[in-house]
Design goal:
single chain; 9 strands; 3 domains; 331 residues; alpha/beta; 13 helices; two-stranded antiparallel ribbon; 58% helix; Nucleotidyltransferase, domain 5; 5-stranded mixed β-sheet
Amino acid sequence: MVKKQIMTDKLSCCGIDVSHLTLDVTYQNNLGELFYLQVGNNNAGFKKLLEHTGQNCHFVMEATGVYYIRLAFFLDSLGCKLSVVNAMSIKRYIQMHLERNKTDKKDSRWICQYAIEQRPPFWEKPDSEYFECKQIYNTIREYAEQIKRLNNQLHSLKLLPFPSKETIKSIEKMKSYLEKEIDHLEVKLQELLKKWQPEQYKSIHSIKGLGKRATALLIIFTQGFKHTTNHRQLISFAGLSPTEYSSGTSIKGSNRIYKKGGKPIRDVLYMCAMNAKQTNEACKLLFDRLKANGKTGKQALIAVMNKLLKQVFAVVKNNSLYQPNYCSTLH
């Protein structure tokens, strides 16, 4: 472990601000001096970047949508050391230094400085199945949103005195097509998940209250629980961690969940909690107890969502099916 840190410290750092078409790069030379260049976000640009920096460099970039992925895969294929950092971490680092201006060139310099001071952990390339499952899941979610919009449009049209039959027929045809596509993609997604993470899929799906879509979501967005070592990380990842905001005698904010996490997970888990408070015995007992103690329905549901995530982590960690009557010996 010590050896790895020493090797990391010897690497020169390179900060990369990634956009759709260009990469703004600030890199160190062997003497620690900083230099700037701009290249295209394509293979020719990647090769030009390495002509200036060399491969023996610690490349650091933000996780900016899909724009960084081609570069990350290119560098990884050559055995280069790279880190992909949460954009919020970089933003807070820049704010901490009271920077007033924002340009791509300045951002690349700050990312390089962040790399020099913080030495973020190296990136591990996700499984190829993860990327395919995530694309299918996001497409299903987008189609579901489109169906919701079409339903709203149909509702509005049918309230008119003289609704257009052709328009309604066209919308219903489109809605039917999207529903068939969702069914097809969901079957394909289940097949991929059972092939990629068969044990996790079986374990999570055994929990009362969690359906196929919630099971898929949890496996995909945790990358098969690759970097999850405890249930608190899972709860934080979903943006369900409780927070307190108070200072002295004048600031007394109410406690609430943090929400800086996966909104899609919270949305799905909320509906799962509605089901789990009736079908999952442990969740039902928790919900009823909190309601009896004066908590609101929403507060009790959030607690059920946390309970579900604890159950998910437990069955994944133990590689077992959910046992409703299981009683932990730990206190």
